[in-house]
Structures are given as C-alpha cells and as structure tokens.
Write a structure and sequence with these properties.
Blueprint: H1 2-5, H2 9-34, E1 36-40, E2 55-59, H3 62-65, E3 73-78, E4 81-92, E5 97-101, E6 104-107, E7 110-111, E8 131-132, E9 137-141, E10 159-160, E11 166-173, E12 179-180
Antiparallel strand pairs: 1-2, 2-11, 3-4, 3-11, 4-9, 5-6, 5-8, 6-7, 9-10, 11-12
Length: 182
C-alpha cells in the first residue's frame, strides 16, 4: 500500500489523515444519496406537527422496499418546480375513495382521523370529489388543511410512489423540538 511506502513519520501521518478524510467524505455522500437527506419546512401547511423553519431528516431508503402507509409524513418534489420539496401527510392509498362532506375529509366513507390536524376544511381545491386514488399514487394533505397546497389541487395532484423522496424520521431543528415526528 502507498502509505506503507512513505518513510517519513510526518508524511505517513498526513497520508493516513488524507485517506481517512477521503473515506469519511465518500461515506457521507453515499449516506446522503441513498439513505438520509435533510429538508427544511417552508410555510405553515404542516402546522401543528411541523412549523416553518423546522429542519427534518428524511429516510430515503424506506420506500424502496415498502409502500407508504396512511399517516406517514412524506417528502416529494413539487411538479411545478422539482427543486422545491413538499412535505405532507398520506391520507389515502391506491384504490381509496376520498371525499369532502360538511368541511371534513372522508376516506372510504369513514371520517378521517384528524387528531394531528386542524379539523375543518374550508378550501376544497380544484379537484372533483369524490375521487378514487389511482394505482401507484397517494393522496396527501398538509395538517393545516386551510393553508396547504396538496392533493386537492391539480398543481400538486396525487403523488406517485416513485416520486417520494422519503418519509420524515426526526426533527433536528429547532433543538428544543428535537425528536421523532408523528
């Protein structure tokens, strides 16, 4: 190995340090590309769960092997500007029927459990309800239903499984809110 051929202890130490640094950088990029990614929350569409300015870690590997589940908080690129990442909650899976009645969401004729959100919906969007979620796609909503651009709007629509960047694991900023996100 090249490091063993260096005779000076000083240069040997420099070479070992450089190799270690290079491996650490390589490991970081592999982890960031395939396993984890950070994202910043912009706006108040996920209040009270996530607030504007929160920083979260996404599990990029999770949806390579399994389908998203109802209740998961997912990240995906906004189709109007793919460099912009949206963070929303999955409320319906392929084949589910989504409807809005009396300012509340129903999925398969069952009132949506809104324990994590502001319950009443006053903005129904431009999608026609009731609607069936297409195969391979998911219906997502912000927890702050009245301040969210989500699957109720054709500019967002239902999200293909292949477009999901990952699911939100933990909030890392602000530090006083550090922890798992449900």
């Amino acid at each position: 190995m090249l490091i063993n051929r260096i005779s000076s202890p000083f240069w040997r130490g420099v070479a070992e340090w450089a190799v270690t640094l290079l491996l650490a950088i390589l490991l970081f990029f592999v982890m960031r590309t395939f396993l984890f990614r950070t994202a910043s929350v912009t706006g108040n569409s996920m209040m009270p769960t996530l607030a504007h300015g929160d920083m979260v870690v996404l599990n990029r590997l999770s949806y390579w092997f399994v389908q998203p589940r109802v209740g998961d908080i997912v990240a995906f690129p906004y189709q109007g500007n793919p460099s912009e990442v949206y963070i929303k909650r999955v409320i319906a899976a392929p084949g589910d029927i989504v409807d809005i009645q009396y300012n509340r969401f129903l999925v398969n004729d069952q009132l949506l459990d809104d324990a994590f959100s502001y319950p009443l919906v006053f903005a129904s969007g431009d999608v026609m309800f009731p609607m069936e979620v297409e195969d391979g796609r998911f219906f997502v909503l912000g927890d702050n239903r009245n301040a969210s651009k989500d699957s109720r709007f054709t500019t967002v629509g239902t999200i293909p499984h292949r477009d999901m960047v990952g699911n939100v694991l933990v909030r890392i900023w602000p530090l006083n809110s550090l922890g798992r996100v449900d």
